[in-house]
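Researcher: Structure for this, please.
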Amino acid sequence: MAEQFILRLADSRMLAPTVRHLVFERVDGKPLAFIPGQFLQIHFHYDDGTATKRSYSVASVGDGSSPVGRIEIAVSYVDGGAATRLLSGLQVGDTIDASGPYGRFCLQDADSHPRYLLLATGTGVTPYRAMLPQLAKLLAQGQREVVLLYGARNETELLYGEEFEAFAQAHPGFTFHGCLSRQPRAVPRPHDRHGHVQSVLAELAPSAERDIAYLCGNPNMVDAAFNALKECGLPIPQIRREKYISSR
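Model: Predicted structure, token format:
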């Protein structure tokens, strides 16, 4: 159930030239109970006093079923953006108002299809990071596969890329494809792909019998991939979407 609370910045680091990873703790000391895939809302005011808010998926990696003490998000900076001005200026110890968790972009217990197709661009990959403990448990049970297609212009924009690579090496059945649309890595990796996520999707031959797909990130990618999956025969309940729209 969603709550309102105050978050205090505990740590931060730059993930990419325009993306910052922020680590918060609740001022009241309580952990955050959330389901991987859900998001928080950050509440603030424009310069004229008008109240507004922005949504950010929880990126924290817990055990997949218990509350977390450290609440992590990834923030993509938008030129001239009010949220960018607020969040880029936060120093350790500063506080912001928040509420949550919200959303249903989560793995479902009733799912029984043998493969998950996870598609993302930009900070749309953050819910999949939070899902890693759940995916590890599913993969350990056998008879399941997970493929993550993550689109970026170049390798510096593959947020948490090394974490996904390490997870793939440690968990047979999980495949990570970095889909680089502008510039390949200086040292290419075997699972890298060239082009946009939706163009690489055809390589996986999606099917209604085999797949459940999750799409998160740029609306153009989400729409294109959604249409491609429908053309492959996936019914709409097997295609779950969350669009990330940059707001000023």
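Researcher: Any notable elements?
Model: The mean pLDDT is 94. The CA atoms of residues 2 and 121 lie 27 Å apart.
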